[in-house]
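Let's study a protein:

___
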Amino acid sequence: QVSSSVPCPPTSIVSHVVNRSLAATKLSWTQGMRVSTLATFFVRYCLKQLWNNVYIGSKIPPTCRRHFGSKFKMADFDQDKKLVHAIETETGPIYFSQATHIGQGEIASFTTPSEFPKFAVFYSISAYNSKSSRVDNVRANTKLLGDINKHLCQDLVVPEGRKSRQQPTMSVVHGFSFLQEKPDSFRKQFFILSPSADESLRDFVTEVSRKYEQSGYCEYVLKEGKLLQTRIEVSEDGGHHEEEMMSVEPPSCHPAFLHPDNNVVFQSYNRALDTLKECADMPGVSEVLSAASSLVPDSLALTSLQEKCQHPVIVLEGLDATGKTTLTEKLGEMLSAPVLQSPPPPIRHLRQVFEAQPELIRRAYYSLGNYILAMQVAEEAQTHPVIVDRFWHSTTAYSIATEVGCGDESQLPPRGHHVYCWPSDLLKPHVALLLTVNEISRGARLAGRGMAKTEEEKRLEKSTLFRKRLVEAYLRMENPGLKVIDASGSREEVFTSTLEVLKDFNILS
């Protein structure tokens, strides 16, 4: 026997017991090896438990100790503590993170979105993969959203022969996450909202997490102003980790605009070109790339391109039904100037194809269209003035308003942000005008057209806040900024106001 008064490491105890047993029973060499192997496993187990209880237990919260030795990585845990999540609501994002200071007496509270019930269970999931390119991640997230919508629609279908019953309403809400100290860490995600715990929904989220090669997902329980997050690992031996969440202050700038790779604003030709090259397998992309290759020179010499414009280039911007078409035609007639449109003729027939693509790819198409159009503008402006119906301002304003996702103009990047600045490699107009009109008049004009509404117009009509973001994004453009013209009056009044502005810019005498 080993005296209990003498402290002995676990390894020595096991070795002593094994040696005494072998000597007493005179086991064969083979039998001794088997016992020794079992003893080795036992020693490893003892050491792991010792490490868990003595060292790790003093370093991390008790709720996490059970994860040591599983696929749950401590580095991921440390990062999750700093991760800020956001749910996009009608009035703006609600930011929240782990309540890491609860032990110091701080009360964890969560600002419940008005769209949410007092009690809800929801799941967050993304298809983002750190090993994939930005384009691949965007395409994967788009497919994931399609899978989610398909699943939610299936749950609403009542099988034939069964009586219809009131089913719990499930919905998907857009959101994102980011690390404050890493500007390029912005990741889009989706929240699947359910008014109660649903095992089939949890099974679906687990299934798609594995499909899109995610290590896990988060389940949230919202009750009485408290939000509990459970991080669930989807591996076979994975566990889960619970943490209380709390609302946090929003960042000074929307995180989508903390780094160029976070958003869909393209401020160079090569960046838009490279984006489309990554998805050359998609419909229409090869045709756009071919047009760009043949019409835009490899070395874009902006200075010489700008010098070609011996006559003024006038850009007109504005929402649908603000009178752009009428004004461009009248100006073109007066100045003997051609009216060019974006997207330009070589790729305009592909517009509907790209309207159905993810936002990143759609905006890359419009951005390349601006550079192709610039080549045509420079050629035409050598001999006469040129009128352009929508150009870079329009592409960028819609990109910014869409990227922000929710809320009013207060959610936009602040004035002076680089996202509002004209690209350094794109032909610059002599003057850019923005036609504005009150919504009552604009609505009446749209109704009078008797035409089917575009997707753009449907969104403008559906969301007043999106319209506010869009108009304000136009107004914050710089170098060149947009000169606003009130287009609410008669055609003659709007035309007269436009001529006055052109005189101010020395385009008319």
Remarks:
- Residues 1-9, 51-78, 101-105, 157-166 have pLDDT under 50 and may be disordered.
- The radius of gyration is 31 Å.
